[in-house]
Amino acid sequence: MHSDIAGRDGSKTAGIALMCAGVACLSINDALAKLLVAGYSPLQILFLRNVIALPFAILLALKMGGARALRSHKPAAHVLRGALWIAATVLFFTSFKTLELAEATALIFVAPLFITAMSALVLREHVGPRRWFAVCAGFAGVLIAVRPGAAAFQPASLLPVATAFLYAILMLGARWVDPRESPWTMLLYLTGTSAILSAVIVPFVWSPVRAGDLWLFAAIALFGTAGMTMMTQAFRLAPAAIVAPLDYSGIVWATALGWLIWNEVPVATTILGATVIIASGLYVIWRERKVDARP
What is the number of other CB atoms lying within 10 angstroms of the CB of residue 57? Predict the structure, then answer.
């Protein structure tokens, strides 16, 4: 009895640690992308990251799921999700040319609110008035951060919001994938299809890779793959209600990295908007878990 409890507690602790580490890795991945967009197309960055990461994704899928993890029962679903992933990533990386890292990160956190809204409007799932209020409050936070109509408004601020919208479709699109497929298969095919699809377009935007930037491309592949792997494993070890809110720790990492590398200090409206967005997202997560727990 005591050993079972200790085991569950140990799994939760491991899940929390992996989620925190995974978010940190993805934040470093974003900072590396911001460094690279000064000299390369976002599509080229994505292509090289996926090409470098693909062998590791294959080995990871084999280790965690065996040979059957390499097989997909619905390849078309992965192709569509790969296209969405390319579009979302290119938009997000493009925003780094203009926006501070913390601002872009804060705005992408509206994704859970998009997921909730689309679940109700498209999938016809029940969403109560409290969650609708949280969704509206979150989008109000976006308006605070973006400041449309103000002199300081930047059209690039809409790119992370568009990224969040595509990311929400991508997450809901997980339902298109055959339920027999493991998270490792999904990770492998997301990496692989993105690499293949982007290879078709990347010759038109290709810039010669400078020798001094090779380590940056290797690092972005390492941190991007490690972050996604650790976050996937975190959801396997601990309840989603515990680990999902930790995703918002990314704003702390983004703020710290932006300050250390580019001396960026978020303005008051960005901080206020981010606070409203994160609070709304946390409430939506908490409310969904509470509703799901009802008998």
Answer: 22
